[in-house]
Amino acid sequence: MVFHGGLTPFLVDDKSKKARFCAIYDKLLGKLRSLVFRKEKRRTFLLRQLIKRYRIAICYAEFGPVGVGSVEACRATNTRLIVNFHGYDAFKIDTIKEFGSGYKELFSYCEKVVCVSRSMKSKIIDLGCDPQKLIVRPCLPNAEFFTLARNPILNKLVFVGRFVEKKGPWLTILAFNEIIKTHKDAQLWMAGDGPLLGVCKSLVKSFDIPNVKFLGAIGHQDVKKLLTSADIYVQHSIIAENGDREGNPVAVMEAMAMGIPVVATRHEGISETIKHNVNGLLVEEHDFIDMSVQINRLMSCRELKADLGSMAREKIKEMASQSTIGFLS
């Protein structure tokens, strides 16, 4: 059963007549309570009602702030709570400032805290979590990515992700600007949307960089189709000025699962998944020149591309075989 509707989830996708009647009843009760209590209290009441109605035994909260918003309802119903941190919720400065005290209450009540990298685990310990409650579990790709047939276009670089600071899309473009000087047939296809998309388009226009295609936001099936044509996957993740950073990017692991060689940065979970010169290539954050050098290495050696791609696939298979949700039992 999936609850949604903000930091304190209070909605459910149940279209039955009984569910619709109960939802109306709960909303009326909630509005009456809102005359006395704050909005947060009303949403906690609604979540508590949902937990009781559907006899929920365990709540699995995606993202730290959602966990904070769920604590009161779970405690009131004696419901087990597990929370999964993904990235911004552990690192972003304003998020820590807003939810820091709430995290302490969350860590005290919840049964387990799941995070996606060892570096994130250290950060969550610093925020006050008992190390014994922490479990490292990356969000691994769907098994389908292991079986997708590739038909790579020579020297086609692909990036999939939000155009935000921590993804460093402009640094990927600057690296490509170096590549295109020696590989005139190279292409850079970038899928995603976000606040930096316009800036990145302006950068390409200002430097008159050819063969860069911005696809905007695309669906899951289109992502799979795009990756099947990728020769190399590129991602220049960095620590943003506001502290935001990656957990362990799923798009990178999806590419690896397909056997696509990856050039990325030594950043958080990426450097825990990719070992330089073994199953991918890594550069330091902001070093777009070295990124272009590493991409050029791949473009100049088919054997290296094949070897790194093969080892990348094996790495994700190994991670998948070790992953389990047995801690829910």
- Taking Cα atoms only, what radius of gyration do you get, to the nearest Å? 22 Å
Give the class-level CATH name of the largest domain: Alpha Beta
Which fold name is given in CATH as the topology of the largest domain? Rossmann fold
Total number of distinct structural domains: 2
Q: How many DSSP H or I helices?
A: 13
Shape: elongated
Overall mean pLDDT stands at 92
Annotated CATH architecture of the largest domain: 3-Layer(aba) Sandwich
The description of the largest β-sheet is: 6 strands, parallel
Query: What would CATH call the homologous superfamily of the largest domain?
Result: Glycogen Phosphorylase B
The helix-and-strand class reads alpha/beta
Record field, number of beta strands: 12
Distance between the termini: 17 Å
- Helix content class: 40-55%
Structure explained in plain terms:
With 329 residues, the chain is of the alpha/beta class. The protein folds into 2 domains: 3-136, Glycogen Phosphorylase B (Rossmann fold, 3-Layer(aba) Sandwich); 143-318, Rossmann fold (3-Layer(aba) Sandwich). Helices cover 46% and strands 14% of the residues. Helix 2 (39-53) packs across helix 3 (64-76) and helix 10 packs across helix 13. The mean pLDDT is 92.
Structural descriptors:
single chain, 329 residues, alpha/beta, Rossmann fold, 2 domains, 6-stranded parallel sheet, 4-stranded parallel sheet, 13 helices, 12 strands, elongated
List the helices and strands and how they pair.
Elements (H helix, E strand, L loop, with lengths): L2 E2 L6 E2 L4 H18 L4 H15 L4 E5 L1 H13 L3 E5 L3 H4 L1 H17 L2 E4 L2 H9 L7 E3 L19 E5 L8 H11 L7 E5 L5 H10 L5 E5 L3 H9 L3 E4 L14 H8 L4 E4 L4 H4 L7 E3 L4 H12 L2 H21 L7
Parallel strand pairs: 3-4, 4-5, 5-6, 7-8, 7-10, 8-9, 10-11, 11-12
Antiparallel strand pairs: 1-2
